[in-house]
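Phosphatase
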Amino acid sequence: MGKDTKILFTDLDGTLLNDKKEITAGNQQAINEALAQGHKIVVCTGRPLASGLHIAKRLGLTREGCYVIGFNGAQIYDTYHNKTIYGKTFSKEIGRKLFQEALDRGLHIQSYSDEEVLALEENQELLFYISGTTVSYKIVPDVETAVDRDPYKLLLVGLTNRSDLDKYQKECVEPLKGKVHSFFSTENYLEIVAEGISKGTAVKWMCEYLDIPLENSVAAGDAPNDVDMLKAAHVGAVMCNAYEGIAQYGNYVTKRDNNHDGVAEIIEQFILNK
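Tokens:
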């Protein structure tokens, strides 16, 4: 890859997408210009890969140089060549154990197939999650069906019971350190992925895979699950509409928010060869 090739890692919600879950015209134009110059665009999301791909296709990010990182770094997909280029799961035995422990505590937990969210019952937590994604869901009869393969991710959703999620994290997930780890991507979502998985490790892996110097990398984000990505990239660009406290992990804060071409500002400042 040429030494002048740059790579942008961008979060979706609150970053590339506006509050209506759409891409602004200014962001779209800037992305088109970056790709035309041979730079790379990587959509990075905690969403399942199917949701990230759906959005990437809607935004036209299926051209050469476009990629999607799903499950907060656990799966990476080349949208031009239509293939997974990286994936890391944890064992279904651990997945089933964690799933059952959540159920025993009365917590909502869900897994994923290639196309759907899998849960044991339809409840307000599941519907809350679905309302913010583009994936469908399926109600399955038991834990074995919910976790029928080594999972990329499990997700607990809590709407009014953060303390219960904290307790579950400490008592159920932390004892499995070295095999899985967990983090809150938002106040409501406790994510469980394989040890070593984060958007930050995905940034480093992609740069090595594409032979792009890390100093040519730029990350754009706004949320707690973007912190590792913002720290890993050479330029960590934090949206001015970011969650409180996120700005300290970047080295640039946008002047424009996600509703007013904030990502275009980042691309113009750090990616395009003017």
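The chain has two domains: 7-88+197-270, 92-194.
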